[in-house]
Write a structure and sequence with these properties.
With 273 residues, this protein is mostly helical. The chain has helices spanning 13-24, 32-47, 51-69, 76-108, 111-117, 122-135, 137-152, 162-183, 187-206, 214-222, 225-234, 242-271.
Amino acid sequence: MSVVPADVLPGGALAVEEAGRGAAELGPRARMWPALAAVYRAQLSRARVARIPLLFVATFQSIGIMVLMRGVVTGGGEAESVVAGSAVLVVAFVALNLLAQYFGQLRASGGLDHYATLPVPPAAVVLGAAGAYASFTVPGTVITAVFGCVLFGLPMAHLWVLVAVIPLAGAALSGLGAALGLLAPRPELATLLGQLGMSAALLLGVLPADRMPEVVRFARDLLPSTYGVEAFARTFGEHPDWAFVLGDLAVCGAVGVVSLAVATWAYRRAAVR
């Protein structure tokens, strides 16, 4: 018969001490920016497989719309709206439509449980995925803008403003897309909502505002991407009013902060269910 010291029994002092040591060895919760960078790199690597089809579909769609609109729009402010709206539509296709589908499928498949076990802030998960998806829109948006300028004879001197338009419009639309995907009870509904949101960005962003009824213009003002479109369209003028451009970009950025905050809340809500 073996003799076991009382200290190592489940209720002994040594067992309690070892349990306390085990709990103390847990690492601290990851900080926001390192966690965001890690999630961004992981999502970027994951989405890289579908990069070429993604860029082709989003870019081809916007270029096709501009070619169709060329038959009814010849130039002036209407052409500026068409080109700006088509360029931002590339961002909407990815950041709003595809991100809604991604988070809808992630919630339905239980993928949120994996992220919930990681010691990363919820905002890092939402921002990392949104940033990765929005990053793929940069080449397509630039190609669409250049093609539109050539097609309608618009100046390309201020295309550098896309450096601000793409991330700000992308943030606003990514937050909205992520929130739709996380709040939808079924992945099919998330896909439907993403498609409807992209259709709204198409109809309200590409079509000239002067030809819209007053009620539709009000709905257009509620769409986050509208302010990115307006900021980009204003730069085609001979002497752009940069105060209005900065104002539109500021509104777009503010909407992006709000939409990403809502998406983070939706992630917390979906992760605990």
